[in-house]
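User: Hey, quick favor. My workstation is busy. Could you predict this chain's structure for me?
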Amino acid sequence: MLARERFLLPAWRKVGWKDLSSECLAAHFDFKRALADMLVSPPGKPQYVGHLAAFMRATAVQRDIDQRILVPSLRTALPLAERRLVFNDIELLYASHTADGPPQRSEASPWHDLVNEAQVVLSSLPSAMPGGADQLEAT
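Assistant: No problem, here it is.
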């Protein structure tokens, strides 16, 4: 997910979204929505289990589309030199993870950026959650 956010989607943006199917964008929207729902329903809330299941489904669908459509179609959309740079950056991202798994959550973690982005989106939509942006701060 981080590779898509940090490298693949910016690469597509650079080539003007050339040949990117609406299926890819719809899956990305669903993933972002599921992430936002997770942020407003912390563990212990009645809707948490449903939001967790929806997030897991959205993540699986997004991963499938990334592997089946997004990454392979970059071969035709990006020149070879740019493709090499993008995939080198992805390799460096994966190399930054230790054998014990992803880095621990911290302010410097790339996951923190993804969560911050979801928080920004949610804070601009106060009707998306009871209590508006104040509720998000409490989570």
